[in-house]
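Module 6 notes. Inverse folding takes a fixed backbone as the condition and produces residue identities as the prediction. Think of it as a translation problem where the source language is geometry and the target language is the twenty amino acids. Below is one complete input and output pair. Work through it position by position during the lab.
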């Protein structure tokens, strides 16, 4: 019995700590939806995150809002962002917006620009083939 206790007690402690961490960390994770996933949702006041590429030619800036379309794999959603967009915000860039889906458009109060760690000068050409999705 003593031999089993040396392994059983530490195993129970490790399992307890892992269970505690999983429960507490899972509540802090925030997932984002694609435009196709948001379109099938019903309108609600629930906070969501939406990710996709800003459709070129769709950005309309007004005094306190910016309206644009976010697209992913051929499906796009209208976004109305309240507030000043980040400096890196532009057409064709990946964004994550936070807000509510009202059934017709996404009303955003958070706007994050997604980017990678690689620097490219303005003169480099953007290769669309490297950033397209494959539908099966």
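Target side of the pair, the amino acids:
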């Amino acid at each position: 019995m003593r031999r089993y206790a040396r392994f059983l007690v530490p195993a129970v402690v490790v399992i307890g700590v892992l269970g505690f961490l999983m429960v507490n960390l899972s509540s802090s994770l925030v997932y984002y939806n694609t435009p196709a996933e948001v379109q099938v949702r019903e309108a609600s006041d629930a906070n969501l995150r939406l990710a996709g590429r800003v459709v070129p030619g769709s950005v309309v800036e007004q005094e306190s809002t910016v309206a644009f379309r976010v697209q992913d794999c051929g499906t796009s959603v209208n976004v109305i962002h309240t507030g000043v967009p980040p400096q890196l915000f532009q057409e064709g860039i990946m964004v994550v917006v936070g807000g509510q889906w009202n059934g017709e458009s996404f009303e955003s109060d958070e706007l994050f620009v997604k980017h990678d760690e690689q620097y490219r000068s303005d003169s480099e050409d953007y290769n669309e083939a490297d950033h397209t999705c494959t539908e099966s």
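Reference fact for the lab report: The chain has two domains: 1-30, 35-116.
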